[in-house]
Design brief:
Growth Hormone, Chain: A, transmembrane helix
């Protein structure tokens, strides 16, 4: 019988950065050009195995939490006799368990195989969504939304952390953008699916809006069942890589660890001090303000956009279809800004500029004398995801690039998203039916938090620049006289050798 491994042994085998702490792994000697060519081949293999799966999963993740907006347009509120307040509460309750469970989920992720943990999450939320299609009243809808928040909580922090275990800092944002742009595509895909599915009205005696939940839930479960065999856990155990390719990827990660010495602890066991370090890191809280600039606005926007378009004079079916071009432009902008950020090797401009683009959209939507000028209103909608999606990817990449060692990064990224996603509970309640079609609270508050995100990004840029300047003023001899080798390894991003991305 096969011997079962302890949690610590599992963690070490599947540790993404399963490298010696004292020296980077050796790769057979060769020219720099040859090694880079081999690295590109290995990364292309990783891209083909990881990114398509994460993209599909995030499409379903975002679609499954936001398709309630499509269900509303398709008749859910009428069939369940929901008031506007009850509908907003059904949106809101999702975010509390979703936010609270992200840190515990990433702790579990670090202690087990990522593919199995993510598969369990996907199958669970798909099952809950399917059951949401058979609810009979408001109370049952609330229960399913709570459990949807519980089961979806761990996926996004797990996926973004998993990518840090494969890609260097200036390769990371482009990869996150590829799968995160699925959030934009999910909105359009959800609208397209909803347009078709709502025509199943009356099939098996069920309303069309019920079939939106049931069919999308079943598709989610089916995808989740294949993940243990298809989603790679780490470079160290990836069967599609040769031994040399595994070693090369690991060496590149070690060299790109963020220190001038190229070394940080990568096999550290969990200690409570890593949780404490993340909780007390003010840079993460600046990131949370930037994250709120996205979550408050984008969840409000996703839930409300089908209704906003319908109020321009379109039928419910056409309103679903007209969401697609808006989300497609958002997806394209996300990828383009990420490529620029990685190419320029900087983060802050690619947070600030996109936020300014979305601010233009909100200013326009506040200024238009609704319901007049429906064409201009529709045009202004394009500015919102085109700015919000690239900005949040820049924020996530910036914060993750500046967290070390790996346990602090796992906890810190989950903390960023945990508190940051509470913004969704706010966003779910700012587009009020009583304010239609002008929505001054929705557009006005969105503009305010976007401006706060710009301010937080500028403050973080100044902070990390000053820290890097102070560290560069210290000599190597001065640093080594003060700290031992092991201390420097375990200090992570607090090490005087560490240089923050700005």
């Amino acid at each position: 019988m096969e011997k079962l491994m302890s949690p610590e042994e599992v963690r070490k085998v599947h540790s993404v950065e399963n490298l010696p702490e004292n020296d980077p792994p050796s790769v057979a000697a060769g020219s720099v050009e040859d090694e880079e060519k081999e690295a590109r081949i290995a990364l292309r293999k990783a891209d083909m195995r990881i990114l398509p799966l994460l993209t599909v999963l995030y499409v379903f993740s975002f679609m499954d939490r936001s398709n309630i907006g499509n269900a509303k347009v398709a008749g859910m509120n009428k069939d369940l006799n929901l008031t506007g307040t009850q509908y907003n509460l059904a949106l809101t309750v999702f975010f509390f368990p979703y936010s609270l469970l992200e840190v515990p989920s990433n702790v579990i992720l670090k202690l087990t195989r990522p593919s199995r943990w993510i598969a369990a999450l996907v199958i669970s939320w798909g099952t809950v969504l399917t059951l949401q299609g058979i609810v009979k009243n408001y109370e049952q809808l609330i229960v399913t939304r709570v459990f949807l928040g519980i089961t979806e909580a761990g996926f996004f922090p797990a996926a973004t952390y998993l990518l840090t275990t494969w890609y260097c800092r200036w390769e990371y944002q482009t990869r996150v953008a590829i799968f995160f742009s699925a959030a934009s595509l999910a909105g359009g895909f959800s609208g397209l699916l909803a347009y078709g599915i709502q025509h199943m009205e009356g099939v098996a005696g069920l309303g069309g809006w019920r079939w939106i939940f049931i069919l999308e839930g079943i598709m989610t479960v089916l995808i989740g069942t294949i993940l243990p065999w298809t989603l790679p856990d780490s470079p160290a155990v990836a069967k599609f890589l040769t031994p040399r390719e595994k070693e090369l990827i690991q060496q590149r990660l070690q060299r790109d660890s963020g220190t001038s010495e190229g070394k940080v602890a990568t096999e550290e066991a969990f200690q409570w001090r890593y949780l404490r370090a993340a909780l007390l890191d003010y840079k993460i809280y600046l990131g949370i303000i930037m994250f709120w600039g996205n979550t408050i606005c984008i969840y409000a926007f996703s839930f409300a956009m089908p209704t906003i378009i319908q109020q321009l004079g379109y039928s419910a079916a056409n309103a679903q279809l007209l969401t697609i071009p808006v989300y497609f432009v958002g997806a394209l902008a996300t990828y383009l800004f990420a490529r620029l950020a990685d190419h320029k090797k900087t983060r802050w401009p690619f947070v600030v500029i996109p936020f300014c683009i979305s601010a233009v959209g909100f200013i326009g939507l506040l200024s238009i004398p609704h319901p007049k000028l429906p064409g201009l209103t529709y045009a202004m909608l394009f500015f919102v995801p085109s700015g919000l999606y690239p900005a949040v990817i820049g924020c996530i990449s910036w914060i993750s690039n500046n967290l070390a060692p790996t346990w602090k990064r796992a906890v810190g990224m989950a903390l960023l998203m945990s508190i940051g996603n509470l913004g969704g509970a706010v966003g779910a309640n700012i587009f009020l039916e009583s304010q239609a079609p002008r929505y001054p609270l929705g557009y006005g508050l969105s503009l305010a938090v976007v401006c706060a995100g710009v301010g937080a990004a500028m403050v973080l840029r100044v902070v990390v620049t000053r820290i890097n300047t102070a560290r560069e003023a210290m000599s190597d001899d001065e640093i080594r006289a003060k700290y031992s080798h092991d201390q420097l390894l375990r200090m992570g991003d607090s090490s005087p050798f560490y240089r923050y991305v700005k």
